[in-house]
Write a structure and sequence with these properties.
The protein has 370 residues and is an all-alpha fold. It folds into 2 domains: 206 residues, no CATH class; 132 residues, no CATH class. It contains 14 helices and 2 strands. A two-stranded parallel sheet has the order 1-2. Helix 2 crosses helix 3, helix 9 packs antiparallel against helix 10 and helix 9 packs across helix 11. The radius of gyration is 25 Å and the shape is elongated.
Length: 370
């Protein structure tokens, strides 16, 4: 039988195209789409803090629709119920909308689902009994928003929210937020959680929910710390990381002579970081996913200052060694092209002149020649 080209072209014309600036959008198979009961009256735009559900019946239908939407892909009734309840918890806070543009997505990952036999109370739409349902409900109520915060944080820092290499990062965030140990059921994998279960909401509504929680003090301390003053922003981390290193350098005995040498560049970096923190997501590599028409770029003046200071910062980080929190940074290394001779020389100078002593002014002599 020949292929039905018209049907194929209908699918092709309705799919997301990877055009310039849109490559940040992810993709999940249809079995992981968010199931929306066809009779649910969705608002045109999402409204954080306002539930789209009018009553318990609509909430039940939403759970049923999503359970049956993901059951095969989830692999078990337990996992499917967890995902359905997690989605209800997120949707109940005003994160879903009828208009695709409001969600800042290209591929619409909503599936309007009608009940079997036209009625959600029909036995065919029931959810099988899951022994761990009580534990799942408690977990979702207590940790559901934290899972959202973690996904938004990783997206903020990395430009997308799932890659196998991120698994350890998510585990670290879970431990920091005390999502550990026996929770009374088999937790889905991080890929299922952060990619498949939550993906269909879009990032912009989840960012707005996360920032609302931060502003209202409804955020785990470990996550609030990571969003203060703003989460790391993919695309400008080289500047913000450089600035963080400069702040650490201020505790050194030789800081005054270093600052005297580079005070103009240091001031430019600080000003740029303050501007980034004022509107961080406009600078994000995936700014369009957050609803901005165009991405704001780091100023040329700041890049000139970055290029002047980067080798000294890399040398300082090398001096601090692997145990320091700055040691894991990659942004400055990648953007500057990696350490060169000056970084090595400055690292040795830091080793020699770090401790306050009568010869600490020798750092001035070193800097006078660079």
């Amino acid at each position: 039988m020949p292929i039905d080209l018209q049907t194929l072209l209908d699918d092709y014309n309705g799919s997301a195209m990877a055009v310039a600036g849109h490559a940040e959008w992810g993709f999940i198979p249809e079995e992981w789409f968010l199931a929306v009961p066809a009779n649910l009256a969705l608002p045109a735009n999402y409204q954080i803090g306002t539930s789209p559900f009018a009553n318990a019946g609509e909430r039940k239908a939403f759970i049923q629709a999503n359970f049956h939407q993901v059951r095969a892909a989830a692999g078990s009734n337990e996992a499917a119920l967890f995902i359905a309840l997690l989605r209800l918890h997120i949707a109940n806070q005003g994160t879903i909308a009828a208009t695709v543009a409001a969600r800042s997505v290209v591929e619409d990952e909503y599936n309007l689902r009608t009940p079997v036999n036209g009625n959600w109370t029909d036995p065919a739409n029931e959810i099988p009994d899951v022994a761990s349902s009580h534990n799942i409900a408690k977990f979702v109520k207590h940790h559901g928003n934290t899972l959202v915060h973690q996904m938004v944080y990783l997206f903020s820092a990395r430009g997308h929210h799932w890659d196998p290499q991120y698994n350890d990062l998510y585990e670290r965030l879970k431990r920091a937020c005390f999502i550990t140990g026996d929770v009374g059921f088999q937790m889905p994998s991080n890929e299922t959680l952060y990619r498949s279960a939550i993906h269909a909401f879009g990032i912009k509504p989840l960012l707005d929910l996360t920032l609302a929680d931060k502003n209202a003090g409804r955020m785990a301390a470990a996550m609030a710390l990571r969003f203060t003053p703003a989460a790391p922003i993919a695309g400008v981390a080289h500047v913000t990381t450089l600035n963080a290193a400069l702040q650490t350098m201020k505790q050194e005995a030789w800081w005054d002579v270093f600052n005297a040498k580079f005070q103009g560049e240091i001031a430019v970096i600080q000003t740029e970081v303050d501007t980034i923190h004022a509107t961080p997501y406009t600078y994000h590599v995936a700014a369009k996913v957050f609803g901005y028409a165009n991405r704001t770029m780091v100023s040329q003046e700041a890049m000139n200052a970055f290029n002047r200071l980067a080798q000294f910062v890399l040398g300082y980080i090398d001096h601090l060694g692997r145990r320091h929190s700055l040691a894991g940074q990659q942004a400055v290394t990648q953007k500057s092209g990696g350490p060169r001779g000056m970084a090595e020389a400055f690292s040795r100078a830091c080793d020699k002149f770090t401790k306050p002593s009568t010869d600490v002014d020798s750092m001035a002599a070193f800097l006078a020649n660079v």
